[in-house]
């Protein structure tokens, strides 16, 4: 290996990749369904008032909703990118 091709410290050139379980199955989270339903309703009302995606108006209420949490079903990409 040349000087530029040296492996990172602690890594060997013969190390192999080992697949592991997805982290969402390793660290299962207890989800409060009523809280999730409340967040979904609040977000849907917000989308109705201010639109979706890049055309959505950015408001103080948007920031408050983000701090309260984005529903698991929607996820961050749903809130930001979906039209």
Number of strands: 0
Order of helices and strands: HHHH
Main sheet?
none
- Percentage of residues in strands: under 5%
Q: Which structural class should the secondary elements be placed in?
A: mainly alpha
Estimate nothing, just give the exact number of structural domains: 1
**Envelope shape:** elongated
What is the share of helical residues?
40-55%
Estimated radius of gyration: 21 Å
Q: Give the termini distance in whole angstroms.
A: 49 Å
How many helices? The count is 4
Which ranges are low-confidence, i.e. pLDDT below 50, for 5 or more consecutive residues? none
Overall average pLDDT: 77
Fold and architecture overview:
By secondary structure, the protein is mostly helical. It is built from 4 helices and no strands. It has one domain. Helix 2 runs antiparallel to helix 3. The relative contact order is 0.12. The mean pLDDT is 77.
Q: Secondary-structure map with pairings?
A:
Blueprint: H1 23-26, H2 33-50, H3 60-68, H4 75-81
Helix pairs in contact: 2-3
Brief account:
By secondary structure, the protein is mainly alpha-helical.
Q: Which features would summarize this protein structure in a list?
A:
83 residues, mainly alpha, 4 helices, 0% strand, elongated
């Amino acid at each position: 290996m040349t000087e530029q091709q040296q492996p990172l410290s602690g890594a060997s050139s013969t190390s192999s990749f080992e697949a592991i379980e997805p982290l969402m199955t390793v660290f299962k989270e207890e989800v409060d369904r009523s809280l999730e339903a409340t967040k979904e309703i609040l977000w849907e009302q917000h989308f109705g008032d201010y639109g979706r995606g890049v055309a959505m108006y950015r408001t103080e209420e948007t920031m408050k909703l983000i701090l309260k949490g984005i529903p698991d079903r929607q996820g961050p990409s749903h809130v930001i990118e979906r039209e």
